[in-house]
């Protein structure tokens, strides 16, 4: 480079630095400016020999990221300094220790978090990529600003991606749409989320992006005219009320127009709400709500509102802190227009997310929403047994999910994702409440735990010391937190049964004069065609492997020759730790309907479901039940055209399969007899009552009880116990 070019570049760098200080959203103190200056000097020195792909000096990148952090996200001086230094440790000779020495613990912690994210291996493999995202989200434990600066870094990379190879552009853009846009959305950075989505589309589907962009530009003039006509109508009324306001038209993002075109299968011209009108008014905090509704009534005096499209986020702000009134009205020329009503404060929060929140909340002792969000997020991260792809999917689900607001019995407001059930509500209050849930009341009425909650419901959870999760709960719970806690509780119970089984097995082997050691366990695992010792102990615990089966094993063992050949044919697999989770696909079986019946079925060729897939049954005319995956290409057509022929289906581990049995009782009717019977059944660990019916006539009673048990031996034991109750004459199985 020539000297003149270098001088020009240095001038530009100095210019950008001054701009950074000028555009900072927060008011910078002298100490803040010193910190930023020092960070700037270190960054300039560290990156002095580096250039970007486009040829410009590398330092422009950290400055640009710091500008996004300072103005668009509005963070503090510490974050601006960390943004300037975000690539220093990774790319230059500076170490983390140097940063700690020069800038203190907070800045070095944030820089360390950012370095960790950058060092994650980038791989095409989805599960590796997902694992990387999980690690990235774990850096939230260090400091939430790590993620926010990472989003700013990603935004600048997306803005300057033109000089990259096409395959690289596509990979970075897909990753952006996959995780960074949802993250920005969840933190309340709507402007950045929109830009990330649009840029993501630009590089993943360039033709579509440019086509929509061209059409938006072509229709801009017409759109401006329309907004003027709309504004003209309400301006006089707003002026009469002496309000200070501005009205802006805002085109919908290219990405959201594309999504509408795709979801509704319509052309660009058929997307009816391609823009929104935003009314931003000045107000002190006391009158903010009152004025919003006043503007609402003025707008609806002139234009008819769509009653199903009112969104009141002023009375109940979103958990991202977003506040506004959204109404859709029938505007001029019979077109629907979305009108967003916000005060200047609400507008800042909508654009800056949490940073504006900090500004307006200074001095208040309310727990900050962002902290609360980070805590919730960390709980989801703790459940490390979920595999990484599921984790990221679950995480995204919770990021993008629409919210509902429900009340506790004391009248507190709780926000939950749309589709949540009383179980999700119970776990959102406290893990213990969730695990002890016995039942639920919605608006005072007893409801099944699978009921979907609606905004405005008042939910009361009934708990019991004896209640504990069962595998059906996983069908009812939708939030990541509830599902993780239920899974770990079920695993815990399984381990307890296995521990019990281990003790029983030790006793039974001793009775057969067989030593309880690793060799025996190996032989038993192979003899019963199992995979792990946990499987073995669990099956003994629930009684699937009973005395007779153990005697068969003992008999086969005594025949040394048979034993020798068996060991030659099947190599014994090493005994596995009792903590290993059971993964025995062999035992998977499909069950159908609410009663989980075992029926004959065929797997559909179009989607070839395998154990573990989400599936449904379709009753065909000539071939019985055909099982399809829920995301099978034919699923939508079958579900919409033949809904009456769809039958619920799910995979179950057949060792946990439970069977229905009807017990018939007769005896002499006496006070407390029913109580004795039900008490006996509920004291039996592995028995649940499905149905109960007692009839008394002339001093004799008959009863029919439907119970659910894991196997015959448990049922026999129960019948023996019932026979011993005073007054019972006969107990038989139907």
UniProtKB/TrEMBL annotation:
<dbReference type="InterPro" id="IPR004811">
    <property type="entry name" value="RelA/Spo_fam"/>
</dbReference>
<dbReference type="Pfam" id="PF04607">
    <property type="entry name" value="RelA_SpoT"/>
</dbReference>
<comment type="function">
    <text>In eubacteria ppGpp (guanosine 3'-diphosphate 5'-diphosphate) is a mediator of the stringent response that coordinates a variety of cellular activities in response to changes in nutritional abundance.</text>
</comment>
<dbReference type="Pfam" id="PF02824">
    <property type="entry name" value="TGS"/>
</dbReference>
<dbReference type="Pfam" id="PF13328">
    <property type="entry name" value="HD_4"/>
</dbReference>
<dbReference type="InterPro" id="IPR004095">
    <property type="entry name" value="TGS"/>
</dbReference>
<dbReference type="InterPro" id="IPR003607">
    <property type="entry name" value="HD/PDEase_dom"/>
</dbReference>
<dbReference type="Pfam" id="PF19296">
    <property type="entry name" value="RelA_AH_RIS"/>
</dbReference>
<feature type="domain" description="TGS">
    <location>
        <begin position="402"/>
        <end position="463"/>
    </location>
</feature>
<dbReference type="Pfam" id="PF13291">
    <property type="entry name" value="ACT_4"/>
</dbReference>
<dbReference type="InterPro" id="IPR002912">
    <property type="entry name" value="ACT_dom"/>
</dbReference>
<dbReference type="InterPro" id="IPR012676">
    <property type="entry name" value="TGS-like"/>
</dbReference>
<dbReference type="InterPro" id="IPR045865">
    <property type="entry name" value="ACT-like_dom_sf"/>
</dbReference>
<comment type="similarity">
    <text>Belongs to the relA/spoT family.</text>
</comment>
<dbReference type="InterPro" id="IPR033655">
    <property type="entry name" value="TGS_RelA/SpoT"/>
</dbReference>
<protein>
    <submittedName>
        <fullName>Bifunctional (P)ppGpp synthetase/guanosine-3',5'-bis(Diphosphate) 3'-pyrophosphohydrolase</fullName>
    </submittedName>
</protein>
<dbReference type="InterPro" id="IPR045600">
    <property type="entry name" value="RelA/SpoT_AH_RIS"/>
</dbReference>
<dbReference type="InterPro" id="IPR012675">
    <property type="entry name" value="Beta-grasp_dom_sf"/>
</dbReference>
<dbReference type="InterPro" id="IPR007685">
    <property type="entry name" value="RelA_SpoT"/>
</dbReference>
<dbReference type="InterPro" id="IPR043519">
    <property type="entry name" value="NT_sf"/>
</dbReference>
